[in-house]
Known about the structure:
This protein is an all-alpha fold and about 290 residues long. The protein has helices at about 1-25, 30-50, 55, 65-85, 90-105, 110-120, 130-150, 155-170, 175-185, 190-195, 205-215, 220-235, 240-250, 255-270, 275-290.
Amino acid sequence: MKFISISIIIFLLIIFILFGCQDKNVIEMTIEEQNKLAALHYKNAFDTFFVSKHILEKVDPKDRTRKVKEQRIKAYKDFKVITERYYKSIYMDKALVSIARIEEEYLSDYGAVKYYKKLRDDFPDSKYNFEAAQKVSEIKNKFIWKIEESIHQKEYDNAILIIERLKNILPEFEELYFYLGLIYEKKGFYEQAMREWGKLKDNPKAHFLLSISYYDRKLYKKAIKELFEAIDLDKKNPVYYYNLSIIYEKDGNKEKAKQLKDAYLKIAKNNEDEKKWTNAIMEESAGNKEK
């Protein structure tokens, strides 16, 4: 029994030495060695990515798109080796942009934005950095469109799924909390909605929606505070002034309500969307003066 135990210990030690040292060597590998090995993977990936005309001539025309996709996904694996093993090599940013492009074209926008973000954040001097920053912004807008479409179609669970996946990849993407709050509000979960909007300190729309939630609960002072926060962030939105005037009027402060209504009219007079409301308010004000 003792002999078996010792044998097992020796075997485990050998495994540890072999694989432990291997990991150690990878970690302690010099930049020159990383560059050399990364270069091999980059060449293999590049050769695979660009499918030769000779190969495509042998493929049935209707299957050529599928063949190109297969080859590029094979190349993707070699590009990934660079990012996983040879992350100090000069090929890292090239591998990242290649992976992101393949993800975007053939696999997943989630994967694409993840790798473009890494390239944007970790390689400010890379020649691909501008492309990465543009792509992160572009794909974010694409996801916003998907979220808004899902909300419009009342597919709230699908919208939440998109938001939760993106929160893990882009934790700084604060607009996600705005949409999450909007979904909760539409589902009738007002406390959750207010909690999500409360995370957004620099989003005027979030403060505006919070003010409506407080107003509905007759918490006028809190509603006023949120609207002033919204105005500090966006002084040109006439709706914020108009809602403030309504709340002050409801709260019995007629003088303040009039000041804010005048501010609303001044800002809204050049706003096409607000013209019909400004005309109605001016007619109402004129009628009150006659009385």
